[in-house]
């Protein structure tokens, strides 16, 4: 066991930035409105399971189905792009299939928002750079933060109000759009090398 607090801190900060749970608050509130309720525990646990599972088997699974990490990231960038467009333009692109709280907690909340392609490709990079146990601890720390934010999102909604949420949603929509473009451009180049 090679616990290293510097590695844990760095990996936690990188994951926190990529997961961007604070930036996802407007999406969480919108999902809560559509579905009526979100299971914070379920979403957090599923996100943690997907991240840890992918940390161990991600590259092998992608190789097995003939997809490399860059192709996976490009596909994920499209999902993020369309979610960002919804946030910015106030339109609905994804068909509302009468999402139940159970379904909304899994898709799109746990995957692809929390444990999405950006997060999963970041985990593969962190695994190459840091000790495995330090990356696992950083995942657990981030899941605790995710749970706390999901649990308090309705209180945050009451504090911010409708206009505050609208403004934050547009701002973070643009940020999410920028992340999608960055994920796309940094990975599309790798496909043509």
Give the tags.
193 residues, mainly alpha, 7 helices, 82% helix
Describe the structure.
This protein has 193 residues and is an all-alpha fold. It has one domain (13-92, 101-191). Helices cover 82% and strands 0% of the residues. The protein has helices spanning 5-19, 25-35, 40-64, 69-89, 101-114, 117-129, 132-191. The radius of gyration is 17 Å and the shape is globular. The relative contact order is 0.22. The model has no long low-confidence stretch (mean pLDDT 84).
Summarize the structure.
With about 190 residues, the chain is mainly alpha-helical. It has helices at about 5-20, 25-35, 40-65, 70-90, 100-115, 115-130, 130-190.
Main sheet overview: none
Helix content: over 70%
H/E series: HHHHHHH
Count up the helices.
7
Topology:
Elements (H helix, E strand, L loop, with lengths): L4 H15 L5 H11 L4 H25 L4 H21 L11 H14 L2 H13 L2 H60 L2
Helix pairs in contact: 1-6, 1-7, 2-7, 3-5, 3-6, 3-7, 4-7
